[in-house]
Amino acid sequence: MSKIGAHVSAAGSVALAPDNAKELGAEVFQFFSRSPRGGKAKEITNEIANEFKAKCKKYGMEGYIHAPYYINFPSSNNRISYGSVAVIREELERGSKLGVKYMMTHLGSAKDLGDNAAIKQTINRIKAIFEKGEKFSAQLLLENSAGSKGVVGDTFEELAEVIDGVGRDDIGVCLDTCHLFASGYDIRTSDSLKEVLKKFKKLMPVSKIKLVHANDSKVELNAKVDRHENIGDGKLGIETFKNLLSDSVIKKVNFVLEIPGGGDRMAKDIQKLKDLQN
Known about the structure:
Layout: E1 4-7, H1 17-24, E2 28-31, H2 46-59, E3 62-66, H3 78-98, E4 102-105, H4 115-129, E5 139-143, H5 156-166, E6 172-176, H6 177-182, H7 190-203, E7 209-214, E8 216-217, E9 228-229, H8 238-246, E10 254-257, H9 263-277
Parallel strand pairs: 1-2, 1-10, 2-3, 3-4, 4-5, 5-6, 6-7, 7-10
Antiparallel strand pairs: 8-9
Helix pairs in contact: 1-2, 3-4, 4-5
């Protein structure tokens, strides 16, 4: 069965993230290991890493890192695209030191490159992350985007093209439910969800799906806008998540909520998914 968790704050120290997750009733958690907006990352000392790992073991939790928002592999500005390579490599190093299982990232926007050039550059930049030959215990996941103009990775075809082009078996996919819906993938019924997964299977093994970002959507199907909503309050609706949690493929991976509202609302929605699961 899927474990249910949430994106939590790591303000002050990444070692506080497991405590914040435990307080919400989460079974897994996601966090930023650095500011998502920019600036130098705080050092993760051996003491901090050991404290983080000890808490994860104590609480029986897996942790995941979300990359900063500014990652943009297909940018025509080399400072930005190669800077993204350096940050993702650093985040994989930090995640490996902390013992997290996954580190996920968006691919970026191709609005200043043509589609083909953008995909090619994205492949080359992801290859560059691993060019020094490091072995990371944290696994890189590529997250599907919401489909706004120029964004890379809003379709299964683009994700598959990037993953095939990079040519590494250790790169997986994080599926965001809101982004799927905003990009035109209707997952609201059991039958339509199966059709969407069938499309995925034609391009990649479903074993590539390692994590689900469980978010309802403020916007309609194929709106091409990324607007998360609380579980059951959006256009996806509660039945969508009931179907996801019972699907033979999706129920094998863990769920992380990235929804509006404070801790009380997050805790309520975590419990809502647990209740649907049971």
